[in-house]
Each structure stands twice: as structure tokens, then as C-alpha cells.
Amino acid sequence: MIVGVPKEIKQDENRVAIVPPGVAAFVHHGHSVLVESGAGLGSGIPDAAYRAAGARIVKRAASIWERAGMVIKVKEPLGDELTMMREGQILYTYLHLASNEKLTRALMRHKVAAVAYETVQLDDGSLPLLTPMSEVAGRLAVQKGAQCLEAGSGGRGVLLSGVSGVKPAHVVILGAGVAGSNACPIAVGMGAQVTVIDLNPVRLRYLNDIMRGRITTLMSNTANIAEEVAQADLVIGAVLITGARAPRLITRGLLKRMRAGSVVVDVAIDQGGCIETSRPTTHSAPTFRVDDVVHYCVANMPGAVPRTATYALTNVTLGHGLEIADNGIEEAVAQDPALRKGLNTFGGRVTCRPVAEAFGMDCAEV
Ligand SMILES: NC(=O)c1ccc[n+]([C@@H]2O[C@H](COP(=O)([O-])OP(=O)(O)OC[C@H]3O[C@@H](n4cnc5c(N)ncnc54)[C@H](O)[C@@H]3O)[C@@H](O)[C@H]2O)c1
After folding, report:
1. Do residues 157 and 290 both lie within one domain?
2. Do residues 298 and 165 share a domain?
3. How far is the CA of 126 from the centre of ligand 1 (A)?
4. Nearest CA to ligand 1 atom 18
5. Do 95 and 147 sit in the same domain of this protein?
6. Domain annotation covers residue 36
7. Which CATH number do you get for residue 74?
């Protein structure tokens, strides 16, 4: 199969869908790989590294879309890409179709076999192609929160670790899932005093165990959240109810009780945010203030660290990519139920139930 990797065109998107060892793996399996010139530069990967791994470097994105049997990307197709998709072509990327009817209809019209990273799902309900981005966002949340607490960023002027004779910062993490449990050891490692709040006692027990008593874990309820948030220097919002809008755990009233210059990093902003006053921001203008509380609400946090994020993403996308290239899409989804859940459109029909339900369409079997 010819596998094509165009340069991402979404604003602030510096990740790329394949790294040189991935190219080498496709070539080793007998496939050819076309990479658009400059596709890896945002992640620090020059054309020469792809060429050395066996890729052919192509000047124009159009010739990739024309020739590739499978196009591998990071973000959904946009602009000209929407018109270059071809009937029967396989598209393997993040899509988030349930909130994008226009794109869903374009994929149906072009009869694209679209596999969405975010809906590939294992039997235990986990989403293996989404997890690494939550790991990145959770760890980054502490780093960004620490910067926002500096006086120059409008924060309280508090050092996360404190110093001898001076208290450390109080960090409250809402949600002990992938993002929250990745934020936790970074905050502890930086010397903060950390409280983690979740609804799920299993998650709290797990964090309590691995952190060996160096954090406080609390059951999520209105009283615990109010008491902790009002005393926090930094709150990290990392809750998720799969498939639903994030629950609003910090109301405007509670925000008003927070200390001037304290910081909220709402990681859950991509699901609507868990703080009433949150709205999505970008890497070029990441923060705003409401009631003297600094809000950091960047919806694609991994974009700040594209080198790490590219390798984390491609570590988990390569295996399924090879399955598709080796077997063709129909055979690959027949053999792998997790990948079947990733197939969102095929032959002009929607094949993913939540997407079909979002738009009142029929869901086709494959
Ligand atoms: N902004 C970004 O760039 C970015 C990047 C990656 C992930 N995310 C988002 O981060 C959020 C967390 O993702 P994740 O992978 O860690 O999810 P996860 O499912 O692993 O964890 C979510 C946790 O929230 C807990 N929870 C749900 N309702 C709660 C409540 N009312 N009180 C306390 N805890 C509650 C769950 O029990 C679970 O432990 C998601 O919204 C995800 O989309 C954002």
C-alpha cells in the first residue's frame, strides 16, 4: 500500500503523524511511504531523516492525497484537504466527528474509510490512542500552572516548592484518571502540597498507594471541592465522563472564593471545561483572568511540546496503521475489534454509533 503523510495545516499544530522508525516499519512490511517536505520540522525531524528511513519526500500535499491508499494525519482534514480526499481512500487520524457534522458529511460524500484515533477502544473501555495525549497534558498542566503562578504572569507570586521556612503551594487536582494521575507526581516532585479529588475510590486508592502517603486523596463532593479549591494556589481540572460534557465542578460562586492571583488549569476544556468561567484559549494567548483568578484553558495542550507529543502519539498509532496497511481496512477491522470501534465512516455510511446518534443518522454494520 502507498501510505501518505501530509504536513499538518491546522493553526499551532506542530505534530506529525509518523516518525522515521515508523517509516522504516512500513517499508519493512513492503509498503511505500510518501512524506510531504517539511512535515516533521515542527517536531524537529528533517526530511533527510525520513529519506534515510526509506520514505519518498513529496513537494505538494496534493500529490500525496492523489496517490496514497492510506493518509495518516494528526488532526482532522481541513480546507483544501476536504476536496482532495478520494473514494475508497483510508484516513487514519484524530477526527472528533460527533461535534463536526460538516466533516462527517464530507467523509460520507467522498466515501472515505475514516478511522478516528479517539474511538479505537479496548474491551476494558480504555482509549489507547487518546491516553498518551492525556499523559502529556497532565504532566504539562503542572508546568504551565507553576508559570502562571509567577507574578509576571499575573499569578500570586508563589513558588510551587516554597523554600525552607516558607510553605509550598497547595495544588488541587480534580480527577485521578490518566491526566490527573500524571499531574500528581510532577506536582509532588516539584515540592507542592497536593490534594487529589475523584469520584472513583479505586483511582484514589491507586494514587494513594503509589504516592506512599505524600498526597491527600478526597472523595469528590461539593463540600470537599469547595473547601480545597478555596485554599488552593493552583487547581488542575482533569475530570472526564466518557462521551459527555465535563461536569462543572467549580461554579462562579466558588471561583469568587478563590484567592487573588490563584490559577486554574482547565485540562478538561476540550470537553467543555469543568470550571464555569472557562473558555478555550490558544498557545499564542493561553490565559485570561476572571475574578482575579488566572485561567489557562488551552484546548490542545500537547501542541506546546510537539517533539514529545509526536513520539508519544506515533508509539501507539503505528501498530494499528500497520494492521490496516497489511490487511486492507475491511480485513483489519474484522480481525481487530478495537480497530473496528475506530472505523467512523465507510463506503458513504457512518459506522460509529455515537457519531450516527449525534446526527440522527443510521449506523451501518461493516
Ligand atoms: N486540553 C488538552 O489539551 C487535553 C489533552 C488531553 C486530554 N484532555 C482532557 O483531559 C480530561 C481528562 O482526561 P483523562 O484521559 O484523564 O480521563 P480519564 O477518564 O482517565 O479520567 C477522568 C477522571 O475524572 C473522574 N471524574 C469524573 N467525574 C468526576 C467528578 N464529578 N469529580 C471528580 N472526579 C470525576 C473519573 O472518575 C476519572 O477518574 C478529558 O476531558 C480529556 O479530554 C485535554
Report:
1. yes
2. yes
3. 12
4. 177
5. no
6. yes
7. 3.40.50.720
Chain CA centroid to CA 109, Å: 27
321 vs 338: CA distance, rounded Å: 13
The answer to whether position 119 is within a domain reads no
pLDDT tens sequence across 116-132: 999 999 999 899 999 99
268 close to ligand 1 (CB < 6 Angstrom): yes
Which residue's alpha carbon is at the smallest distance from atom 39 of ligand 1?
177
Cα gap 141→36, rounded to integer Å: 32
Q: How many structural domains comprise the chain?
A: 2
Sequence-distant (6+) residues with CB within 8 A of 241 are 247
Place of cell 490534594: 195
- The CA 267 to ligand 1 mean position distance, Å, reads 8
From the CB of 48, is ligand 1 less than 6 Å away? no
> From the CB of 133, is ligand 1 less than 6 Å away?
yes
The whole-angstrom separation of Cα 266 and Cα 119 is 23
pTM: 0.89
* Domain with 72 in it: 2-112+306-358
Residues 263 and 199 occupy one common structural domain:
yes
Asked if residues 261 and 291 have their Cβ atoms less than 8 Å apart, the reply is no
> Do 143 and 258 reside in the same domain of the chain?
yes
Atom from ligand 1 closest to the CA of residue 274? 41
364, part of any domain: no
Q: How much distance in Å is there from the Cα of 75 to the middle of ligand 1?
A: 20
Q: What are the pLDDT digits (tens) for 187-227? A: 999 999 999 999 999 999 999 999 998 999 999 999 999 99
Spatial strand order in the sheet of 287-290: 216-219, 193-198, 170-174, 234-237, 263-266, 293-296, 287-290
Catalytic positions are 96, 270
The verdict on residue 27 lying in a domain is yes
Ligand 1 within 6 A of CB of 215: no
